[in-house]
């Protein structure tokens, strides 16, 4: 199970704290970093057990779970840009008057109305989650879907891929196995997504790469490695510095 699957399968409490506990380690749901149980981690002249060090990691690497989640694509959060801005300011502890002045909208009572709308959205979300949990217990015909990666961009019907479809497409486009070369780069967006997701696995999550490194890895995959590199970034599987000096896997 990859980090995106663990993220989406986490309970609400696990998602709020940003990590899950497994038999031998703690796993960051935001980036995949692990801390091993029984190991003492030094940091800034202090010693931390695995769980406390994981909390420290989230604070240093991601600022907070809220800061990480609020930056996810709006198709994943369900928030409008306006609601996103409001939540950011509320989280910073701003008063209704402060928020109204910073956003330059209406009055303090306008902000209270926005708070009410967000509260209503919260109630609706709880009811929907409860219904989906109950449905999961009854629906024996629901297909298993490939989980969205957290850095997905342009989330639409192309992400509607079942596990069965995924396996068939991988066999079609990687006839020598998924560690082998790509037979052809598909034209259809859904098939592109399946292929790119698999290619991204050739990059380590904790590593950084130069453009030359990326090209060398991708040359073993497909002759037009520049196109593959571009689509890996476009689909949110890789990211890079603005000057192209460093690349890394994002999902």
Task: Provide the low-confidence segments as ranges.
Answer: none
> Quick one: overall form?
globular
Helix content estimate: 40-55%
Largest sheet: 3 strands, antiparallel
Please specify the SSE layout and strand pairing.
Blueprint (H helix, E strand, L loop, with lengths): L2 H7 L2 H6 L1 E3 L3 E4 L5 E3 L4 E3 L2 E3 L1 H13 L2 H6 L3 H4 L3 H11 L4 H8 L4 H31 L24 H11 L15 H12 L7 E2 L1 H9 L5 H10 L3 E3 L6 E3 L2
Antiparallel strand pairs: 1-2, 2-3, 4-5, 6-8, 7-8
Could you walk me through the main structural features you see in this protein, from its secondary elements to its overall organization?
This protein is mainly alpha-helical and 251 residues long. 51% of the residues lie in helices and 10% in strands. The protein has twelve helices and eight strands. The strands form three sheets. Strands 1-2-3 form a three-stranded antiparallel β-sheet. Helix 7 crosses helix 8 and helix 9 crosses helix 10 (189-200). The longest helix is centred in the middle third of the chain and has 31 residues, at 108-138. The mean pLDDT is 90.
Brief synopsis:
This protein is mainly alpha-helical and 251 residues long. It contains twelve helices and eight strands.
Jot down its keywords.
251 residues, mainly alpha, Arc Repressor Mutant, subunit A, 3 domains, three-stranded antiparallel β-sheet, 10% strand
